[in-house]
């Protein structure tokens, strides 16, 4: 359960990254320290920064720069990859087309998902079948983003091994039928700046993205270095800023991990409010379970919470489809 945290911890995951392929990783003192920090952060805030992650800073910056170039294009160019149900909900949506709890979000975005071939998951996957729509302009957009997704997938798998240890299991709890074929989501997002001076009164509807929790296991947020817009709600209802720290990702856990942990870990409400006059970009990578995974509390987590299941069984693909099909004004 989230606490009255006032700031978000920073965790150096380099020992975990270095030892992640070692079957005896749990015995390493450096890994043990990271595991303790992950456990504390997931219990108290559901959010943490990671440094020492091994993804080149040059690539992290290139991803943000090419995102900015895309959103700088005329609308007529961006709409060439328009998101529709026929595209498997992949592609571009303009400002106000994404909604959170019935309220339009003041951002534009490109949504990408791990590609699903026709019939791969039967009726469960039908809604999400399709290939990602990548813009041809700017050049190299697809290649850069696919490289980035591959590295984020690998890093997320390593962090999840640490979280598995933090829950008291083996490092491999979130592999195999749970997340051995992890689904992923990439949201490439642009938030217009608040017009006028920095001290201008903030409008009531300045929701870059309304308060929500994430759907899956783990999120890696790559945000602009000079604009603070992400806010996380603590137990008292206060909104705590998650200012950008160069060279880090902001990480948070999602709904599926909350279920697996039987409520030991919280998928915390968060929102985006861009009060800066500057346009802000953010690239959010979501590491999920297998698309068809049946998610329910782990035995090790039920033992730690009095043997009572706090949550029923959920199928990740059903959860995702229920969200995706109600998230857009088409």
UniProtKB/TrEMBL annotation:
Cell inner membrane listed as a keyword: no
PROSITE patterns per record: FE2OG_OXY
An example GO CC term for this entry is: cytosol
| Gene3D superfamilies, A to Z | B-lactam Antibiotic, Isopenicillin N Synthase, Chain
Query: What subcellular compartments does it reside in?
Result: Cytoplasm, Cytosol
| Keyword NADP on entry | no
Q: What is this protein called?
A: Fe2OG dioxygenase domain-containing protein
